[in-house]
Each structure stands twice: as C-alpha cells, then as structure tokens.
C-alpha cells in the first residue's frame, strides 16, 4: 500500500487545480489534510480551510516585458501667454456749459488683440453753480462711458445727486468693458463723461488696459 504524505497531496492538488484556476476565484487548503480545493469566491472556503495565496506559492509568473510606446497625442491648444497692462491718466476737467454732451476724458490707442478695460473718474459732478444766495437744490445725473474706435459703447455707469449754492454732490464712477481689435487693424478705447443737465466736472481719471489671451 502506497502512503502519500500531506505535502505531496498539497503539491498534487495544486498542480491539478492550475488548469482550472483561470476560471476560479480562489484556492482553499484544508488545515488538517493539506488538500487544496477550488472555490468560487473568497467567502466559500469551508470550516477548517484557509485561503491560499497564489503568489506566495509561485502560481503567478513574473511580469512580461513592457509593450511598445503608443502614438503621440494631438497637440494642445496654444497658451494665452502673459497678460500685460497699460495705464493712462487725466487731470481736473471742468466743462462749463449748460449744454449736456459727453466730454472726452482719456483716449488710448490699441494694437490688435483682446483687452479688458477698467476706468475710474474721481469726484464726478456738475460744473454748473447756482447763483449766490439761491438755496434751491438742483438735480444732477452724471454718466461715464467706455467706447471703442467705432464709437460703440462697451461699458457705462451712472451716478445721481444734487447741488446748490452751499452743497455739491460728487461721486467716483467706475466703468468696465472688453474690446477686441482684429488683426491687421488698429483700434482705441475712450472714456467719456457728462452731466445730464449741464457741464461736467471731475477731479481726475485713470484707465487700466489689460491685454489678455481671449474671451469666453
């Protein structure tokens, strides 16, 4: 009678199970006999069995050689590049007239590209004054606009208040706009301000023009 040791049985059952291991989930070894069984899932090992690690017993071979490099992907979009900024300024302006019209405050020429424009006008109000001794307050409504080279409005802002012989409202107005100047052309951006009921007055103005990559 031939006696098969536990270690031999373990090896035999492992070798028998290798053929079907690709279709099975796990191997389970009986603690008492060393017999190895193929089970469908990791939770299917029965009482008295332990899960066998295929890597630990050498059933998983070494990694194969690296495959060939894949083809290069498509080129990405061009970057927007660094943004640049330009500043322009204007001093005190007083338009002493009772006829309301927009006064040109700052005019900035532009080369081709995309721009964000931020302009501020300080202490904007009416340049008109009531006669001395007249205490009745008069209304004022001051506007500022950004316009492109075609005189189209690309941004605007308004403030309102009043003035008399003793008081005069004044406001800071900020206007924001965006402009595109096509290739092969030149453009400009201009800040205009007015008072709706007469002449406009302001202490000063500033414009920041930022050259950007584009709009979305």
Secondary-structure map with pairings?
Elements: H1 6-21, E1 26-30, E2 36-39, E3 49-52, E4 84-90, E5 93-94, E6 103-110, E7 113-126, E8 138-148, E9 153-163, E10 171-181, E11 187-195, E12 200-202, E13 204-212
Antiparallel strand pairs: 1-2, 1-3, 4-13, 5-12, 6-11, 7-10, 7-12, 7-13, 8-9, 8-11
Write up this protein:
The protein is mainly beta and 216 residues long. It is 7% helix and 45% strand. It contains 1 helix and 13 strands; from the N terminus they run αβββββββββββββ. The strands form 3 sheets. Strands 4, 5, 7, 10, 12 and 13 form a 6-stranded antiparallel sheet that branches. Strands 6-11-8-9 form a 4-stranded antiparallel sheet, with no helix packed on it. Strands 2-1-3 form a 3-stranded antiparallel sheet.
Keywords:
216 residues; mainly beta; Jelly Rolls; 2 domains; 6-stranded antiparallel sheet; disordered N terminus
Structural class based on helices, strands and sheet pairing: mainly beta
Percent in strands: over 45%
Number of helices: 1
- Largest sheet at a glance? 6 strands, antiparallel
CATH architecture title of the largest domain = Sandwich
Shape: elongated
SSE ordering: HEEEEEEEEEEEEE
CATH C-level class of the largest domain is: Mainly Beta
Number of strands: 13
The CATH topology of the largest domain is: Jelly Rolls
Any idea what the radius of gyration is? Answer: 42 Å
Q: In terms of per-residue confidence, which ranges show pLDDT below 50 for 5 or more consecutive residues?
A: 1-22
Q: How many independent structural domains?
A: 2
> Span between N and C termini?
88 Å
Q: Helix coverage percent of residues? A: under 10%
- How would you name the oligomeric state of the polypeptide chains in this document? single chain
Q: Look at the structure and give the mean pLDDT.
A: 81
């Amino acid at each position: 009678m031939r006696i098969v040791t536990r270690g031999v049985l373990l090896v035999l059952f492992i070798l028998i199970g290798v053929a079907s291991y690709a279709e099975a989930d796990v191997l389970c070894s009986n603690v008492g006999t060393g017999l190895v069984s193929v089970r469908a899932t990791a939770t299917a090992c029965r009482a008295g069995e332990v899960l066998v690690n295929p890597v630990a017993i050498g059933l998983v071979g070494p990694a194969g050689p690296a495959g060939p490099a894949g083809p290069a992907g498509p080129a990405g979009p061009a970057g927007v590049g660094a943004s640049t900024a330009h500043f322009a300024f204007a001093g005190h302006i007083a338009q002493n007239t009772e006829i309301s019209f927009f006064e040109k405050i700052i005019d900035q020429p532009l080369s081709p590209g995309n721009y964000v424009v931020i302009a501020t006008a300080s202490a904007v109000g009416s340049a008109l004054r009531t006669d001395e001794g007249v205490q009745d307050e008069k209304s004022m409504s001051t506007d500022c606009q950004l316009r492109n080279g075609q005189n189209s409005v690309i941004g605007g802002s308004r403030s309102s208040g009043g003035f008399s012989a003793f008081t005069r409202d004044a406001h800071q107005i900020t206007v924001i706009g965006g402009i595109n100047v096509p290739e092969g052309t030149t453009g400009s951006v201009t800040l205009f301000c007015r008072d709706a009921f007469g002449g406009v007055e302001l202490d000063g103005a500033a414009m920041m023009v930022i050259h950007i990559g584009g709009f979305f």
